[in-house]
Structures are given as C-alpha cells and as structure tokens.
Write a structure and sequence with these properties.
heterodimer, A: 254 residues, alpha/beta, Rossmann fold, 6-stranded mixed β-sheet, 4-stranded antiparallel β-sheet, globular, B: 543 residues, MetI-like fold, two-stranded antiparallel ribbon, 4 strands, 73% helix
C-alpha cells in the first residue's frame, strides 16, 4: 500500500500542493485528474522521487520512503512522450534495463511481455518507424521488464487517437490485473480517468477535491468544480454522441 | 541510502572552472593589470602616453569607421543570396551551391584575403591587367573594406539565412489576402522579422573587422588602425608590453559592448511557433534577378581568390607566365614548410578533439535536466565572455601571462588559446541541440539502473553525434585559419601555417604564401568532406 501523508510543496511563493493525504491499495488503478496547473505533475514527480516534498511523508508498505532516492524506490514510469531511445530498436529498448540488472526478468518473462503487448512483429523496427500506439506499448514493455512495484503513467492516452486509445486502455487494465500491479495514471481527461480506474482523485489548485470510485463521483460530486467542469464536460459529450445516433436523421432533414 | 558521491557533473564544472580560471580569467586580469601597473605601482601613464600621441584617436576612429562601413555593405550584400535561398523558386540544387559558395571563403585565413586582393586588384593584379587599369587603390580604406566584406560576408549570410529559415512564410499569404501591396508584404513579412538579425549581422561584422589583424597586415598601407598598432606595440621593433596592454583594453571595449548589444537584440527575435512549408508564389523575374545578383556577388568574391591558384603555378608572375609546377614541388620538398603544415594539423586536430569534448561536457551540464542545471549558468557566462574577447587581445594576454612558464612555446598554449577563443559558438550549438533531445531520457534510464555517465555514453552521445561532428569541424577549420591570437604565441618550434604566412610576407614570398593557403583550403575541404561522408554512412546504417 502506498500512503501519502500531509504532503506540501511550493515553488517560490506558489503553493503547488497542500494537505495531500491519500492511499492506494495494492493492485488498484487510480487516476489523478486535473487541469494544467492543478499540481498533478508535481504530485507524480513526488511519488516517483524526482521532486522532494517540502513536508509530509510517503510510505510504501509501511516503510517511510520520503527520502529514498528515485532509483531505489522501485517505482517506474512511462512518460507522456514515451522517452524511447531512438538510437536503439524496439527490442533493444525493451530489454534496456537488463543491461544493468540482468536477472530482474527471465528471458521467458520478456517474451511473454512482448506477446502480451503484441510487439513481436515490431521488434526490429526503429523507433521512428513505430506508430503512436506501438511506441506506447514498447515503452510499457520496457518499464514492465523492470518489474516496478508501482507503475506510473503520465498522460498515457493523450497522444493517441480513437480506436488505439481504447485498445491501450484495455492493455493497461489487463496488465494491472495480471501482475497485480498498483497503477497511478495522471490525466486531464475525465472520460479517460473515470472509465479506466478503480478510483479517481480530482485535483484542483493543489488540493484534493474528491477521491472516490468513478460511480461515486458521477452520482455524488463533492464540489462545485467537480460538477461544473468534470460532469458537465461528460454530459455534453454524452448528449453529442447520443444526438449522433438518435437525432441524426432529424438533423439531416432540417 | 547511498553515500553522497561527487557526481560527474560536479567534476565537469570543477574542471572547466579551473580551465577557464587559468586560461581566461588569469590572462585577462594579467593584461588589465599590465596596462595600469608600472614599475612604480598603479599608474595611468600608459594610457596617458598612448593618448598624448594623438594618433591613437585617429587609429581608433579609422578602425571604427572602416569597420562600420564594412558592416553595412556586408549586411546588404549578404541579404541578397540569403533571400535567393529562402524566398525564390530557384532550383534546390542551385540554392545549395549558392550557400556553399558564399561560405567558401571561411575556409581560408584572413591574411590570405589580403594578399589575394593585392594580386587581384593591385598595380600588377590580374583583374587590373584584364581591365587594363586599376579600379581602386587597395592600400588603404578601399582595400580594407573589400577585405573585411569578403571576410564577414559568409558569417553575415549564415546569420540572415538562419533567421529567414525560421520565419513562418505563411504570413506572406495572410498579408496578401489582407490586400497588402507587394512592398508592404515584403516589409511586413520579410524585413520586420529580420530587423534584429540584420542589426546583429551589422554588429558582428563590425566586431570581426574591428579586431581582425590578417587583412590590415597586408592592406593597411598608411592607414593607422588599432589592430596594427597593437601588433607593433607587442612585436614591433620597440616592444612595449604596458602600452600594448592598454591598446588591448581599448580594443576590448567596443567588442564587449557589441556582444552585449547582440545578446540583448537576440531577445527581440520574433519566434514563430511553427514553420509552415508553403509554396512560394511563382515569379520568374524575381527568381532571375535574385539568382543573377547572387551569382555576381559570388563571382566577385571568388575572383579575388583565383590568383591563389594562378600565381604559384606560373614561372614568375606577372613577367613569365609559362605554367610550371616547379614552385609547388619545391615547397612540398621543403622540410621547414612541411613541418609547419604538420604542426598546423596537430594543433587543429587537438583543438577540435579537446574543444569538442569540453564543449560537450559543459553543454551536458547546462542543457539537460537535473539537479545541477542551475550551475549551467557558469558555462553560459563563460561562453558570453569568450565571445567578447577578440583573438588579438587573447593572444596578447596569453603572451604576457605565460611568458617564462613551461607553457611558453608549446603546442599546448596554442591549443588552449584556440579552444578558449572559439568556445562560444560551438557551445551554443551543442547546447541548443542537446536541449532538443527528449528531456526524460535520463530519468527513464536511471529508473532502469543507469548511472548518469552510462546514459550519456549509451543514449545521449549516439543521438548527439551529428552536432558533435559539426562542433569538431568548426573547431578544426577555425584552428586552421586563425591568425589573430596565434601570431603572438607561435614560436620557431611551434610555427603554424598562418603565422608562417605572416613571416613570409617580409620576404615577399607569395608563391609559398599561396601554396600554403591552398593547403589550408584543401585540408579544410577534406575534413569537412570526411565528416559529411561519415555522417552519411551513419545515417544509412541507422535506416
């Protein structure tokens, strides 16, 4: 279990995060949802270990890891732009971590991952030959080879379109289940957050506005912001899509 | 928790700090001290003596006026080929040729320009002969301006061409749709976004001309210039190091001012979010005019250099014009001259190798995200400072500082001087290229167990190799052609080509001067060609 207690962070005079308290159970998928400037990236960086909080405590399985450096926490991340190494091909990217820790995954495990993510036919390709979805899957595979204790995903779907988005969502769910892997997703898209995760944390100007199951957020929004921006956005989307299916003929008739 | 180790970034900072402390700060302090510190302590008598003569004002004024005139002419002339390359439908290959030919003179030392002009436009010059009369008196203002323009045209072209490439040309369409006249469109979408670059181009060519020694060495005639004055104070018949230092400080001031002005102006550069590719309007008249004008400019510049390939290959110019290779074979069998060439190669290669390493290390600290990034201001500042110091001043400062130390008369002092002198441009080049690489590589690799150094070797370097090669070639070419600093530092044991050319001038040994120039040119072309080839092979392998 990951617990954050009373985390605070400011840059200069700006309070980026205030009174951050929450916990994530093992194997859960949670989303941190917020607009730009809400502090979600800073929170991600604090969990990962890039940024030190000003005060507060991070515990993982009851150990205090607040001061443990990034590479010793055993967490791992897939960045929004994937950060794949263009001088290496897809396969060399996937097994990059084995150069430093040869025993972390067995050859069979690596092969299973490649199949799970459907990458077998792309292994010898250069990075620039891969599509967005393929890059995302290579980055996921590269991270999963390291057997992270927590998987962090920074805007994993924002660079992908339509159908690919849905298939990557499915893969993320499948991975979390199969490896019983705690997964923390950062996103600005309510639809993504609510349809993908077990719990959603809505962040607004540095504080947690609501942290609950998607169902609860939809039916019992706790805050004006949540209703105003998150729910309204989804409702507009819903009515637009419904109009497409139901009212299509009416419109063309007009 | 791991023990606090000294990180490689800190080692880089410490090392480069020490290096620039000893080879930039110390020499500059020394030269300043020398100009105000006589046998009786602090004194301003050297400045007083300098100004008492009166002709230092004249020298200063001459230098300023001639350099300013050159700066204006250069900028106007450089605009034309840059416009032809960026705003016309001239064939792509022709554009490449225009750009390559405009930049060609960069591969020769400025001291060669001077002698080439003498042999082209002088009384016995080849162009004078063809035209039947001498068009200008080259010893003096006209000759100097011609030399400076040829010298700074490539740099000015590079600046303008670069900015033009980053101007979003879609605004031309917008302007025309809005009903602007052709002139208004031109002013609003070409000139306006270029204003600060044009100013930078003027200042840059002004500074380069103001501080150059190679061209005045051949063409100053009776004109009193700051650079010739400095040379005479330091290496003339009556060397006076104190007065020389004072002249150096005089030369330093406008240079510092200029570079500060440029760094301010660069902030006013208009930045477009993205560069859209548009089809330029068809206009054959415009294309022909720009093409022909560019051709004329290139022809004029290159015509100055044809003599280099003529004079050494005839019996005795201009009296015996039979073709012969005897001069060339003589030179190639002359051990002293071949030694000088070998020395130049050693110095240029080591300058390029060590300079590239230093630039890369410094740029890694300042350009890549990490806990040490704020220290990146240190190399940034060093880069700005080195950019303000003219080569001549640096050379004089080294001469004063390392006289009598183990570094005197060594290759090391030449190499260090070159690296410090040319640090700025390649550093900025490297930094901007590293900044463009994905910012998350280090974090990602570290999470997979890499140390910083491992990531640099395995990931950053393979992806930065193209720029590294460019940096290498920049250092190499400049080390081959530099005159201003090294004339104060090359000794009989460490004589390099450009300093040798200066020496050969005394004996009016122009065959040797031109053959050595051809050697420099072909070496630079060969190195550039090899680097291109290497890069092309790498590209192919990657695909």
């Amino acid at each position: 279990m990951l617990e954050l207690k009373n985390i605070e962070k400011s840059f200069g005079n700006v309070n980026v995060l205030r009174h951050i308290n929450f916990s994530v159970d093992d194997g859960e998928i949670i989303s941190i949802l917020g607009s730009s400037g809400s502090g979600k990236t800073t929170l991600l960086n604090i969990i990962l270990g890039i940024t030190q909080p000003d005060c507060g405590e991070i515990r993982f399985n009851t150990h205090d890891i607040t001061k443990v450096p990034m590479e010793e926490r055993g967490f791992n991340i897939v960045f929004q732009d994937y950060a794949l190494f263009p001088n290496l091909n897809a396969y060399e990217n996937i097994v990059y971590g084995l150069r430093n820790k040869p025993d972390i995954s067995t050859p069979d495990e690596v092969q299973d991952l490649i199949d799970l993510l459907g990458l077998r036919e792309h292994l010898n390709k250069n990075i620039e030959q891969l599509s967005g979805g393929q890059k995302q899957r290579v980055a996921l595979a590269r991270t999963l080879v390291m057997k992270p204790r927590i998987l962090l995903l920074d805007e994993p779907l924002s660079a992908l379109d339509g159908v690919i988005k849905e298939s990557i969502k499915e893969k993320i769910r499948q991975i979390a289940k199969e490896f019983h892997l705690t997964t923390i997703i950062v996103t600005h898209d309510p639809e993504e957050a609510l349809s993908l995760s077990d719990k959603v944390m809505i962040l607004g100007s540095g504080t947690i506005l609501q942290y609950a199951k998607p169902d609860e957020i939809i039916h019992a929004p706790k805050d004006g912001f949540v209703t105003e921006f998150i729910l309204r956005q989804l409702e507009i989307k819903r009515s637009n899509i419904l109009a497409l299916f139901d009212g299509g003929e009416v419109r063309t008739a007009v | 928790m791991s023990k606090k180790k000294i990180s490689p970034q800190i080692v880089i900072l410490l090392f480069s700090g020490l290096l620039f402390g000893f080879f930039l700060l110390l020499p500059m302090v020394t030269i300043l001290a020398k100009s105000v510190y006589g046998s009786d302590g602090v004194t301003f008598e050297f400045y007083a003596n300098l100004f008492a003569g009166g002709n230092i004002f004249q020298a200063f004024l001459n230098s300023v006026l001639i350099s300013a005139a050159s700066g204006i002419i250069t900028t106007v002339l450089a605009f034309i080929p840059a416009y032809a390359v960026n705003y016309t439908n001239i064939h792509k290959r022709l554009k490449k040729i225009i750009a390559a030919l405009v930049m060609l003179p960069m591969l020769l030392p400025t001291i060669t320009y001077g002698f080439a002009i003498i042999y082209s436009l002088g009384k016995q010059g080849i162009i004078t002969k063809i035209l039947g009369r001498q068009i200008v008196d080259i010893y003096g203002t006209a000759g100097l301006i011609i030399g400076y323009v040829i010298y700074t045209l490539p740099i000015s072209f590079m600046l303008i061409n670069n900015t033009m490439g980053y101007i979003d040309k879609k605004f031309m369409i917008v302007s025309r749709i809005m009903g602007d006249s052709t002139l208004k469109t031109f002013v609003n979408t070409v000139i306006t976004p270029l204003i600060s670059t044009l100013a930078v181009s003027f200042i840059q060519s002004f500074t380069l001309s103001f501080t150059d020694y190679g061209i005045p060495a051949a063409l100053a005639g009776n004109i009193n210039l700051l650079s010739t004055r400095l040379y005479n104070e330091m290496l003339g018949s009556l060397p006076d190091f104190n007065t020389g230092s004072a002249v150096s400080i005089l030369m330093l001031l406008p240079s510092v001012l200029s570079i500060l002005l440029i760094s301010c102006l660069n902030r006013y550069n208009i930045r477009y979010n993205k560069i859209s590719v548009i089809e330029l309007t068809k206009n054959r008249v415009r294309d022909w005019i720009c093409g022909i004008l560019s051709g004329i400019i290139i022809l004029l510049v290159l015509s100055m250099f044809t003599v280099i390939f003529l004079v050494p290959f005839v019996e005795q110019y201009p009296y015996k014009m039979q073709l012969t290779v005897s001069h060339v074979t003589e030179i190639f069998t002359d051990h002293t001259l071949m030694n000088v060439y070998r020395n130049s190669l050693i110095v240029a290669f080591l300058t390029a190798l060590l300079g590239s390493l230093l630039v890369y290390a410094c740029a890694l600290v300042s350009a890549r995200r990490g806990e040490h990034r704020h220290y990146g201001k240190i190399p940034d500042t060093v880069s700005l400072i080195t950019n303000t110091i003219p080569g001549m001043v640096l050379g004089v400062a080294y001469l004063l500082t390392f006289r009598g130390t183990f570094l005197q008369n060594t290759f090391a002092v030449l190499i260090l001087c070159n690296i410090v002198h040319y640090f700025s441009s390649p550093y900025l080049m490297m930094k901007s290229s590293l900044e463009k690489l994905n910012a998350s590589w280090e974090t990602t690799a570290r999470l997979m167990g890499d140390s910083w150094l491992k990531t640099v070797v395995r990931i950053i370097t393979p992806n930065a190799i193209a720029t590294l090669l460019e940096v290498f070639s920049y250092f190499f070419v400049n080390a081959m052609v530099t005159v201003s600093a090294v004339i104060f530092l090359a000794s009989t044991k460490t004589m390099i080509i450009t300093a040798k050319i200066k020496e050969l001038q005394h004996f009016a040994n122009f065959n040797e001067i031109f053959v050595l120039s051809i050697l420099i040119l072909s070496t630079n072309l060969a190195v550039k060609g090899l680097i291109r080839l290497f890069a092309a092979i790498r590209m192919k392998k990657g695909k």
